[in-house]
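User: structure tokens for this one?
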Amino acid sequence: MKISLLRASLAAAFVLPATAVSAASVPQSFTATYHVLQGGEPMGDARLTLKPVGNGQFEYTDKITGTSGLAAAFGASTSEVSRFTWADQVPQAVSYKYAFASSFKPKNRELVVQGNTVQMDDNGKHHSYPMQPGMVERNTLPLALGIALRSGAKSASFPVGGRQAVEMQTFKVAASEKVAVPAGSFDAVRVDRTDQNSDFNAWYVPAKYPVPVKISQKDGGNLTLELVSYSQP
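Assistant:
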């Protein structure tokens, strides 16, 4: 769920305590909804869902619809659909599809893991590069980070499948802060991205939710997501 409207192995990367959570604590299904803001003003709504789809795979979907301002005027919406397998508590990528629809300029992107190779189609431009064990992609990255925090991690690095190569992204717990969002007020931990791209912050309540209660990202339009509701079957 990296914000996208108008927008080594992982085991070696985690800093974990001696006793990590069991595989039973890995989420199997849930639905989360968010308000999307740009520059502090309402912009749209997001719906995030996780569900099993058989053969050990899960589908993770993030759909954002513009409801205010230019996003509504241009009929803007995004859909991100990921397939993954839980690999040692990591949502290891199988495939990822991104679609941005609007009356202005639609965009499409698709990532597929074939054996040890990642095949990427970016609006008709094809790229191929080696896959890394424990690789996630931008949609499942916040989920991977939430599971790491639930395990007790204070910092984590992730191999993330990008457009032309795998990119290592690093994060750390920077502070404990109170956060108020439509879903309620929480004592949360703020996680900052610490590699070359440092304009991403997320607030988690790891014991309660595997996904952030709030995300702030300056790159791509100064966007913020705030949790409205979270439910499990």
